[in-house]
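Figure 6 in text form: structure in, sequence out.
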């Protein structure tokens, strides 16, 4: 285990919060869950791992936390390699594989036990702040077994924040929550980032990612398709999303224009139109003038860029629970 890199964010020479080098995980029956993944997560960023089910996101998080050993490659956190019992893991808070608490104890009592463990390891933990984050009200003194799905995840999020970790790792942190509850988690993530905590999370809610993350990496079949800032993934050229009655005909019409834009299907009746020097009015006029009925038009977003990157979903392998 290398030298202690010191507190995060102390200078330009500091290593990234997370560095994955050739990370590979092979499962049973010849399945490769993660395939030579190289990725850096800058200290202080909020970074999303995106991809369809079976793309390797959760296995990557498990290797990052030392819960699963890579077949090849390595994980470094703040410059230190992750190994069983690595001291650097004490700087990490995590919510992966869902909440895990003692069912017959109350939410408060479960957090009290977690606080004790944090303090035994030499960290500082604030029970009142954790309970406020969980936002359970009177239910804090009810048995955990009586909690709804969203309540359990809020309690787990509060536990992950105990000890003010330098790195917070979250797998689908808002799953099962209503919009108001999800906003509370978003605010907690924003507060962590403002305090200098690096956050790595997964989510299938692309509008959520666009609102709370500054970076993202897109995986497919365990491989990295693209990564960068949200602005970079959206692209520097204007993106227009057009809903039409016939996507094949619309794509052919646009492809035949001088300085043709890039046209990518992103839904059964929608096309993403990028570049080509054509304004919105010109695109609509060309489509309507050739008999293509335009049903709607809007500016592109992260979800459109994501779908365009993934291409044909039929090429993905079947979902695997351990990927």
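Output sequence:
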């Amino acid at each position: 285990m290398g030298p202690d890199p010191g507190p995060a964010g102390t200078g330009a020479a500091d290593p990234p919060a997370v560095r994955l080098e050739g990370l590979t995980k092979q499962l049973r029956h010849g399945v490769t869950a993660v395939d030579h993944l190289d990725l850096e997560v800058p200290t202080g960023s909020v970074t999303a791992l995106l991809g369809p089910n079976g793309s390797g996101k959760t296995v990557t998080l498990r290797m990052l936390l030392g819960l699963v050993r890579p077949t090849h490659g390595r994980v470094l956190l703040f410059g230190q390699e992750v190994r069983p019992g690595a001291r650097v893991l004490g700087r990490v808070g995590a919510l992966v594989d869902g909440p895990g608490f003692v069912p017959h104890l109350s939410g408060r009592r479960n957090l009290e036990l977690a606080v004790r463990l944090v303090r035994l390891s030499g960290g500082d933990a604030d029970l009142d702040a954790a309970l406020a984050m969980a936002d359970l009200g009177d239910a804090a003194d009810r048995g955990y077994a009586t909690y709804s799905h969203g309540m359990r995840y809020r309690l787990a999020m509060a536990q992950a924040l105990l000890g003010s970790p330098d790195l917070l790792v979250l797998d689908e942190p808002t799953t099962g929550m209503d919009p108001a509850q999800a906003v509370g988690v978003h605010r907690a993530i924003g507060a962590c980032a403002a305090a200098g905590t690096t956050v790595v999370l997964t989510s299938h809610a692309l509008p959520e990612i666009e609102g709370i993350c500054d970076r993202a990496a897109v995986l497919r079949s365990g491989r990295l398709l693209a990564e960068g800032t949200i602005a970079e993934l959206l692209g520097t050229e204007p993106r227009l999303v057009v809903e039409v009655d016939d996507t094949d005909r619309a794509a052919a019409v646009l492809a035949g224009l001088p300085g043709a834009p890039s046209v990518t299907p992103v839904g059964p009746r929608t096309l993403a139109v990028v570049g080509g020097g054509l304004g919105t009015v010109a695109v609509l006029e060309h489509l309507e003038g050739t008999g293509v009925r335009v049903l709607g038009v809007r500016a592109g977003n992260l979800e459109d860029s994501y779908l365009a990157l993934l291409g044909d979903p039929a090429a993905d392998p079947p979902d695997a629970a351990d990927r």
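Caption detail: Confidence is low (pLDDT under 50) at residues 1-11.
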